[in-house]
Amino acid sequence: MNRKVGAVLNAVLTLVAFTVIPLILPSYLPPDLMAALSQGGFDLTSFLNEVALIGVAMAAIALVKGLVDESSPIHLGVSIVSKVFWLVFTFTVLGLGNLAGLGVTTFSIEMEEGVNTVVFDLSLFAYLAVATVLLKIVHSILEFRDARSKAARTPEKAAQA
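The structure corresponding to this sequence follows.
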């Protein structure tokens, strides 16, 4: 398959998965569920809008990344930005829309007897995500260096022949 066609297909699939589906999802959920989530202090619509916004950015990044040559510095920059956006997406999902919470989410529900508070501490997964993204960035840099060295060797072989 042509690289440019693959890039466009990847961008379209990313756009559908991370933008179109989250924007359509609330219309398919029962109103009782939406009311229960709202009562618990969770704004599902706002959360899905954040996911959709990140999805648009990730689709654009995927398109640019697929269209530029792997030995280009633009490819390296876009690859690093792509990894950072995945980290932002992970923090958004772990924090259920609270990006600054870094995986710690608190729900409070008022009842007749008092207030029930639930704290989800997923910060370990946030730290693992940071470590993973850092390793992926190092991997992207190594791939870029490899692509640059292959691109530099290719003209030499053509000149020798």
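The chain has a mean pLDDT of 85.
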